[in-house]
Amino acid sequence: MATVTEKKAPKQKSDVTLHYLRPGKKFPNVWCPGCGIGIVMGAYIRALDKLGWDRNKVAMVSGIGCSSRMPVYLDFHALHTTHGRALPFATGVKFNRPDMNVVVITGDGDALAIGGNHFIHACRRNINITVILINNNIYGMTGGQGSPTTPSHSYSTTTPYGNAEKHFDPCTLAKAAGATFVARGTVANVPQLEKLASQALQHHGFSLLEVVTNCHTYYGRLNRMGDAVTMIQKFKEDAVMLGKAKKMTPEELEGKFIVGVLHEEEKTEFCDVYDQVVEHVSPK
Amino acid sequence: MAKENRQLLQGNAACVQGALYAGMRFFAGYPITPSTEIAEGSARELPKLGGKFIQMEDELGSIAAIIGASVSGAKAMTGTSGPGYSLMLENIGYAFMTEVPVVVVNVQRGGPSTGLPTKVSQSDTMQARWGTHGDYSSITVAPSTVGDTLTETIRAFNLAERFRTPVTILLDEVIAHSREIIRIPEPGEYEVIDRVKPTCPPEEYLPYEITENYVTPMPAYGEGYRYHITGLTHDQHGFPTNKPSEIIVKLDKLKKKIENYKDEITKIRVEMMDDAEIAIISYGSVSRAALQATMLAREAGVKVGCIQLYTIWPFPEKELLELCGKCQKVIVGELNMGQIVHEVERILPRDISINTIQRYDGEILTPVQILEKLEEVL
């Protein structure tokens, strides 16, 4: 078993992620071969590495699901919490310690179903937390049940005759709820994903990065979408840059998804405002 | 000598004073009767001390936020009532499993469900012990006066920090909302315990190491000790495990760190028990009526004594057995349909007659009612 030391960062770009793996952690990981979550993790780590943040000042908080296992493998403060509750835990960490960089890794079921209420309220507060929402349109860990982003009519083990429900668009939801940075990327375009991750991490306020990814094991298989490579190839075809999308008609955008920075604005951040309150009421 | 700091406070306000005395610097909560004044008082006082108050979107979020604050270094508390406590149980379980010190105040009201928002009750006693799923040992304290509420809140924080565990304060609505003049203690008057931090180098730190007392030192975020915290059953490194040998070690740790120190967690008040033939056992607001009834009965020559449980969980088995072993009769008074009485029945010898006086109509038990019960039992 190779042990990972943190003394010196390897020079090769491809090895940067190894430098951040948790020492002594027994691999392999829980993800299926071909899973997109590893691609997201790589892009996130490279973005973070370039920012040069002290890893003692990074807290990764997650809930339950395949994506939420990511903090197990990475050498940061890691809080693997209960299903849907990553954001309120993260809120406690960030509010208590605004000097910490707090990153939430979550999935579509975790963030939007059981954690939906926490998600919109964290957006509303505009607390300086970065959320990476890895959207694979299904509950993977429990074996392929329909999630709030499972598209209408598509199949899962709990929608065996096609999904009768509508699905959420996490980015529209976040923007409406008050998030001040909203972006979408896909595992099919890794350089862009890394750039978006970097922007999301640096944004001062609540930032959401939705990553469209593959669960070929369940969603792909149940909907006859092929293997991991075929699914990722399809994302490449369906992803439309925001600039290009603006020139397209709704008919042309049918079945596609828009990638890029979808929303960005400056608003006062929750912890900053509270600090002003503290300043105002503390005995002089 | 400086003038004593005396204040007319309700129980909920005394709870906030006790928490601040113990070093609380983070509170997250959600409005719910009859506990809301705890949140309001925290919202008012914490920023003055550089502390943090946040009103969360619900109780699920409130308990999550205080655990997040605690792992990042703050002494943290939340306050709620039965319906909110039910929602918090999910992450109270997380705090047990991950061994994160937090204090949860449950100002009890009648239930089940929305129940009686403004009426007194002690019907969450068993919930405080066994509420969240799984096996674990828990600590619960129960004050009976406004003054007690302040000191028991300090004690709750001390127990939470010392044993790295969530501690529940069960407060009766009638204590939470009664106003009494109490003395605010001076700094240094009561011991304040802080969690033990690791002294070893970070690379040698085992976040769930089995130590002599089963409590592992706990660093705050940003202090160089990066480790993994999970609600999954984990090994001493904090990594998820399915190995039977490691599962046993973890669950035994949760139990032994508390059960081995029961003597130091138990707190009871004993009155007139030396020659007592009858013992009245109670906790919370009922203990006040029980003491009054005991004094009145003594005046009439009845050999009765009373025992008040400040620590409800872990249950003070040894102490009750010693104290009641020589009695012929016991009366257990509670504001519920019978919860602690089952524990009393479990531990006392079969030849002792165990009687109950219970009230669950949203009103308090009075000394007269307890005296009537005494007459009936005699």
Average pLDDT of chain A works out at 94
Number of helical stretches of at least 4 residues of chain A = 13
The CATH homologous superfamily of chain A corresponds to: Thiamin diphosphate (ThDP)-binding fold, Pyr/PP domains
Oligomer: heterodimer
Q: Could you name the CATH homologous superfamily of the largest domain in chain B?
A: Thiamin diphosphate (ThDP)-binding fold, Pyr/PP domains
Radius of gyration of chain B (CA) equals 21 Å
CATH domain topology of chain A = Rossmann fold
Structural class of chain A: alpha/beta
Distance between the termini of chain B: 50 Å
Work out the strand percent of chain B: 15-25%
* Count of domains of chain B: 2
Shape of chain B: globular
Classify the beta-strand content of chain A into a percent band. 15-25%
| Integer count of domains of chain A | 1
Gyration radius of chain A, in Å? 19 Å
CATH architectural category of chain A: 3-Layer(aba) Sandwich
Largest binding interface between chains: A-B, 43 and 45 residues
Explain how this protein is built.
The complex is a heterodimer of chains A (284) and B (378). Chain A is α/β, with parallel strands linked by helices and 284 residues long. Chain A has one domain (34-281): Thiamin diphosphate (ThDP)-binding fold, Pyr/PP domains (Rossmann fold, 3-Layer(aba) Sandwich). Chain A has helices at residues 16-19, 37-51, 70-73, 86-96, 108-114, 116-125, 170-177, 190-202, 216-222, 228-238, 242-246, 250-253, 270-281; strands at 58-62, 77-80, 101-107, 129-135, 138-139, 145-146, 181-186, 207-212, 239-241, 257-264. In chain A, helix 5 (108-114) crosses helix 6. The termini of chain A are far apart. With 378 residues, chain B is of the alpha/beta class. Chain B has helices at residues 11-22, 36-45, 59-71, 82-98, 125-130, 146-163, 173-177, 244-259, 262-265, 286-299, 317-324, 340-347, 367-377; strands at residues 6-10, 26-29, 52-55, 76-80, 102-110, 116-120, 139-141, 166-172, 179-183, 228-230, 268-271, 278-282, 304-309, 311-313, 329-334, 353-358. In chain B, strands 2, 3, 4, 5, 6, 7, 8 and 14 form an 8-stranded mixed sheet that branches. A 5-stranded mixed sheet of chain B has the order 11-13-12-15-16, with helices on both faces. Chain B has a two-stranded antiparallel sheet with strand order 1-9. In chain B, helix 2 (36-45) links the parallel strand 2 (26-29) and strand 3. In chain B, helix 1 (11-22) crosses helix 2. The longest helix of chain B has 18 residues, at 146-163. The model of chain B has no long low-confidence stretch (mean pLDDT 97). The interface between A and B is large, with 43 and 45 residues. Strand 2 (77-80) of chain A pairs parallel with strand 10 (228-230) of chain B, so a sheet runs across the interface.
